[in-house]
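Help wanted!
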Amino acid sequence: MESFIYIEPSEADIGPITKQIASRIKEIPPELRGPLKGIAIGHHLDDYKKSQLAGLIDELIIVDSPSEYAYNTEVISNILTDIVGEKDQGILFLGFTHQGMELGPVVGWRLGIPVMTSCVSFDWHGKEAYAQRTIFEGKLLVTCSVNMERGAVISVQKGAWKDLSSESKGDLPLTTVTWKEAWAAEKTEILAINEDVAEDKEDITKAEILVSIGRGLGGPEYLPDVKELADSLGGMISCTRPVIDLGWLPSYRQVGISGKTVAPLIYLALGISGQNNHVTGMDGSEIIIAVNKDPSAPIFNLANYGVVDDILEFVPELLRQIKDK
Amino acid sequence: MRVAVCCKGIPIGLNLESVHIAEGDIKSQGTDLYINEFDAYALEVALDLKESYGAETFALSLGPLRSQEVLYFSLAKGVDQALRVDGETNRPELAAGSLVQILKEIEPQIILTGVQSTDWGGGEVGVYLSQALNMSLAYAVVEISQISDTSIRIKKELGGGKIAEVALKLPVVLCIQSGIKPLQYVSAVKRKKARKIQIKPGGKLNLKDMEQSISGLMSYEFKEVTLTPREGQAEMLIGTRTEMAVKLLQIINESV
Ligand SMILES: Cc1cc2nc3c(=O)[nH]c(=O)nc-3n(C[C@H](O)[C@H](O)[C@H](O)COP(=O)(O)OP(=O)(O)OC[C@H]3O[C@@H](n4cnc5c(N)ncnc54)[C@H](O)[C@@H]3O)c2cc1C
Ligand SMILES: Nc1ncnc2c1ncn2[C@@H]1O[C@H](COP(=O)(O)O)[C@@H](O)[C@H]1O
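Answered by r_m:
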């Protein structure tokens, strides 16, 4: 048995999801999980990043792939399939991120091993592991027993586990794997990577107070009230993805896995259900206050304070109270 | 060019009482099924390809009889043909395994799926289809920019605001991200007319037919469905609307 973590490329430090997964898997007895090996592909691991992994994993495998293959998921899948499948019983852990959503099922399908996506908990007993994953937009959990005898792919929601990493400890054994032509892309060519730049627009990552709206707002006609509220609190407006998709606000205001990561003092979530793809971008906020008309909305699992009410009534009441003062 | 779009029927407003585990699968009680939100975006892409490239379009759904509603909706939107694979599953490898059979007959150059089904929320089915059919794959596609006889150019999300521009060989599976195109309204008249069009049988979910190819993937079992626990439970503000508003503003004022 060997356990592997796919380390996604990240510009600054080792990404939080890698540390979160490593922290949890390290707690599992080595006789069950085997050695825990990180796999980094490309040229993205500087020395300081390696030191962040010391103590968290048992070994680091660096695969030296040509730079044109950065972000080429066809190539990354080829490499992961080979390494994880080299011996029987390889377990691949990875984040339930854009890359992980694509890579995990590819590797699982090719190796013919069970794939558990979107996991929030994972306990290993003998030949079986118990994984819990969310269903129905985060409202329900399903517990699955996974047969680990031939290996498995486990993808983990961002933020589901705590990062217990501390200052780097000791040496990290390193294996460098040289590039194999068999891994080259046959179907996929990356032409360019672009980033949504904020330019002169409001930068929501700098706000101390974010008044954030979700689909619960019901329509763009209610935006003026939200704008007035944000202005009077000295904050900015941010939102969930559907608000962008519906064309109510421009994309630079989106918080979440495909948008911005924010950590304001106050995050006022109005009509936001609180699904993981959104929460990932705001769970570092100091104080989260949620207003939602559904008392079972998952956002209340995370928020510090909650109000069960209709935002179309509650926001005008907030404005009245501010004016009365 | 043939384009197949996979559309799942999703039960809305479920609670713990209406979901249970039976026959090794997650089942939901007889509620109405609506098109998975992400698949509605994939459907818009299929119709756009019909208009811009003259593509012949097929909508596919694996589901029980009541999932026909999803296919009538896609017919009303304008797809050329709709096919239903009879069966009910929330196991993505089973769903993919069943859809593969009919896709092999249609032989589309482009298969469109959503990034995920909102009830299961895994995003595996499209990825599995690409592997089972040995097709190119792109996940979280936000734009289709160009199509030639042998290749396609798309843009896909990488997360955190990053976008990759990618060229892929055809045939391809594209897992479509929400927001790729605005969702177009479909009139009640069109919806009514669509109900007169026949939905074709696309086979049956039959585990025996595909057991060998997916038995390894199937080595897990559903044990229990529970409510998501409330870990760091919010302190709920109570009282009249005015009282709650005053308290909320007080919390904000004290914190900044
Ligand atoms: C690959 C991928 C990437 C994604 N990236 C992101 C991302 O970056 N950011 C993001 O936000 N999402 C992202 N999503 C989408 C995400 O999974 C959710 O669909 C989204 O966050 C839901 O947004 P919402 O809470 O506004 O809408 P919904 O889930 O529809 O919730 C609306 C909420 O409003 C409440 N409500 C309705 N009316 C009222 C009212 N009048 N008063 C009070 N409450 C009301 C409802 O009870 C409900 O809880 C991504 C999805 C995928 C698959
Ligand atoms: N039963 C189904 N019928 C048709 N398409 C499906 C079905 N299940 C999943 N899909 C497609 O696969 C995508 C990903 O679903 P999932 O893997 O369940 O998250 C969905 O957006 C659909 O396009």
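OP: Thanks! One thing I noticed: Chain A touches chain B through 93 residues (CB under 8 Å).
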